[in-house]
Amino acid sequence: AQSVTQPDIHITVSEGASLELRCNYSYGATPYLFWYVQSPGQGLQLLLKYFSGDTLVQGIKGFEAEFKRSQSSFNLRKPSVHWSDAAEYFCGLGQNFVFGPGTRLSVLP
Amino acid sequence: GAVVSQHPSWVICKSGTSVKIECRSLDFQATTMFWYRQFPKQSLMLMATSNEGSKATYEQGVEKDKFLINHASLTLSTLTVTSAHPEDSSFYICSARDPNRAGGGYTFGSGTRLTVV
Question: Pairing mode, if any, of strands B76-81 and B19-25?
Fold first, then answer.
């Protein structure tokens, strides 16, 4: 079965701190993986995607994600969080478009 | 909780006909729903934001007369692809926000794969 899990429903970090959002997937072949961000009242915005090649993917807004096949993971990272990063983040499996449940990020000043 | 039902899950239609896709929030009221489409090996593209009781807000480049969106109640939004053509073949997915759900509250439908022949 194809599935995406995001273990953390809500994460709070201080501005300037580093961030890692977890994503695990279940898929029988090489997955297409995405990370999206959704700000309140807005639609999804693509942060980055992995199809093949380099397992460390760079995205917009200073985000990066690393595909680890052995761990079935695609965790999103940012070295220094800004207050404007507060939003909800979704990991997605691209073949049949399965979304994770989302992780809400709050940023403390 | 927080289930969004999308129907049909797949549909094949003839060129020139219209197809209606339904997005229902089953156990919560959604004042706002989003409609997306995805082309093969591409990311989702936001088509429009559907607001209950008012006109939808379409993204730039999306033809509002071709993709009719109606959000007549707090639990139902519909997307009608009018006079469908093969280039409209795509995967369409909706999402709705449950304000009572932990986190941001967005839940996605299972998607509709449209094939126009």
Answer: antiparallel
Question: B92: part of which helix (H) or strand (E)?
Answer: strand B90-97
- On the question of a cis peptide bond just before residue B99, with omega within 30 degrees of 0, the verdict is no
CA angle A35, A38, A43 (to 5 degrees): 110
Selection from B102, B62, B84, B94 nearest residue B12 by Cα:
B84
Q: Which residues contact A64 (CB under 8 A, 6 or more apart)?
A: A48, A56, A57, A58, A76, A77, A78
Beta bridge partner(s), residue A104: A10, A88
From first to last of its 117 residues, what are the pLDDT tens digits of chain B? Answer: 668 899 999 999 999 999 999 999 998 888 889 999 987 666 678 899 888 888 899 988 999 999 999 998 999 999 999 999 999 999 899 988 777 765 556 788 888 999 999
**Which A residues in the span 80-109 are in contact with B, Cβ-Cβ below 8 Å?**
87-88, 90, 92, 94, 96-97, 99, 101-104
Residue from the list B38, B104, B111 with its beta carbon closest to the beta carbon of A38: B104
Q: What percent of chain A has pLDDT over 90?
A: 63
Distance CA A56, CA A77 (A): 11
How distant is the alpha carbon of residue B35 from its chain centre?
4
